[in-house]
Amino acid sequence: MVSASRPLFHANPESRLDCVMADSDPHGSFEDIRDELEGNPMAKLVPYALPYWVPLSIGFVSTMINRAARLFPALMLAAAIDLVITQSGGVDQLLAATGLVPTEPVPAERTGERLSLLYYLGTLTVAAYVVQSITHYLSRYFFQTTAQRIQHDLRLDTYDHMQRLSLSFFNDHQTGGMMAILNSDVNRLEDFFNTELRQITEAVMIFGLVGGYMLYTEPWLGALVLLPVPLIALATAKFIIWIEPKYKRIREHVAQLNTRLSNNLSGAAIVKSFDRYDVERGRVAEQSRGYRDEKIGAITVRKAFFASLRLLVGAMFVSILVAGGYSVVTAGGLTAGTFVVYFMYLRELDGPMTRIGKTANNYQKAKSSAERVFGILATEAAVQSPPDAEAPDAVEGTVTFEDVEFSYGADGEQILEGVDLEVESGETVGFAGTSGSGKSTLLKLLPRFYDVDAGADAHHTRADGGIDAEYGGEDADGRDASGRTDRDHDRERRTNPANPAVRIDGVDVRDYDPQALRDRIGVVEQDPYMFSGTIRENIAYGDGEAFRTVLEAEDESDVPDDVDDRIREAAVAAGAHRFVEELPNGYDTMVGERGVKLSGGQRQRVSIARTILNDPDLIVLDEATSDVDTETEEVIQRNLDELTADRTAFIIAHRLSTIQDADRIVVMDDGEVIETGSHEDLVDDGGTYADLWDSQTGTEADGDDGDASQSIGADD
Ligand SMILES: Nc1ncnc2c1ncn2[C@@H]1O[C@H](COP(=O)(O)OP(=O)(O)OP(=O)(O)O)[C@@H](O)[C@H]1O
């Protein structure tokens, strides 16, 4: 398995920055990801909700009952006013229709009967409150717990999909932005299920029941009260149109701010050593200011919207007061009790009406979160596994680079310019050359971190339009204009020497399943990534089973002896055991975030141990021992000789003594191989390698094997 880390290879920061600035998403706004989506992203939540249809249905039904029970006590009050207290005449028409209460008031002198009716109404009211309380619990419980479950599923799916995307995706997007998607965006969707769905159900119920009640009891008054509802809908629609671009911008500012903060906090040591507090404060202030200004703009619009809703509610109150009062006074259809119910129900309408704005607002926010979350889920990995992928348990290790051309991104600068190289199984090949000449890039193509640029008839490059882009379309049988199928093209591509390809055991790496391939290739890089955890865990990471065993162990004594022995053997072979044993907690030492508590050389040795544990068939060491002292390198070298003896190995090194004994040394310059041969031959040839050797050893390039081990960094 490839040692898990990011960035997986170091790169020349300047040209990388140029590339990133030119054709990617420097601020992490994820515009490109939104483009991946078709249709309303909120609809894509449905499949996540479907498995929970039972609890969600209970949530919906109990919310509806809850709202009905909430409106009931007002009717009891109306009955009490009309039948018991004022005996003003007929009871509320709706109540009369239900048959729950008598239709005529109890005469004033029958005090006992009046009180019995009052107690009866009181009992019904208590029952309504009991129902209200139970359904309140059920509604909240089922909506909230289901929202948590959906959130968990969604986060896990998004994370899993994200971690399987190609390296180019991680290069082009900021970690802060990706974290925001997995955290705040997923949480916002949870909140939508938790709060908004319930609120919408409540609003529909309240409007339906109250509207129905009003139209039933006094149609003209009901119509008057309900008249503003379309106005509210119109205002809400306007509001959504207004607020949408603002929320997009706010989100972009949050992503920029997150990225800036996470960059600065991760780079705290650099900020301190260069005393760049003021500059960094300025940059944070600039991002924060942008966020503040956009947010203030959005608040202004939002508050104006809510204020206009208040006006409408006020207008409704006044119309009930005047028109309803008129109806009571002129003995129209309204009783005193119903008049009171109108007011009480108006208060019930008040909440959902002002909520409509908030719901629209939150819907908008949830929609833009859904765009990003489902945009990620719709993003395809640039490196794909073909349908009939090869997934061998082991590879022999013959490697061929055929006319390999490569650029990062569709419009990127050409990094590799036709590299041809044949490597035999078991051969150790050293790579030397100027910094930025493409050594790491070339070897990144082996485990398919990236795929070679496609040739004229190839169809694997996705950057330029997907699998079938070059075929110009197919018929229903999957045949193109010349009658050939995908498989025909594949076969042709595999066997056509004119196409650029990297082959392992004669098979184009694009025909392997990337994961199976990576499992057979061990990569150790100059600045290996350490996970926050113990040294034992970091070494065990190299072997899936050992890693799981170590993670499951409660403490050190729980790790089975055979697993622990293998970890220690790997550490001995990597020259790490001695320093680990000297640490106060030995293999249980916590390495800190990204391994900050270890030196660069110690991290490299732990990383080598991790790869040794994996026992790969092919090994790539990319400046893997550049940070260790010469003595330690000799120890590692002796063990590496063993490690590389029966497997194909690629070793990139600026310190030429590291690759001096390689079977063959390849010298690269500007994306091309300019020299190959053994150390002795290259020194004798007096070319670029000889010059480098000379500058490192301080000897003339006369074939005299000097000592390059002391001089590091033959860059450029
Ligand atoms: N992810 C990337 N995106 C864009 N450009 C990149 C990326 N990684 C590397 N490059 C560019 O590709 C070129 C080759 O880089 P590479 O790391 O392969 O060189 P190298 O020979 O290994 O250099 P060094 O010896 O310094 O490690 C450089 O110009 C570099 O800036």
UniProtKB/TrEMBL annotation:
The keyword Transport applies. CDD domains: ABC_6TM_exporter_like. Residues 399-695 form the ABC transporter domain. It comes from the Archaea. The lineage of its organism: Archaea, Methanobacteriati, Methanobacteriota, Stenosarchaea group, Halobacteria. Its main location: membrane. The keyword Lipid biosynthesis does not apply. This is ATP-binding cassette subfamily B protein. Gene3D superfamilies: ABC transporter type 1, transmembrane domain, P-loop containing nucleotide triphosphate hydrolases. Residues 476-495 have a biased composition (Basic and acidic residues). Residues 58-365 form the ABC transmembrane type-1 domain.
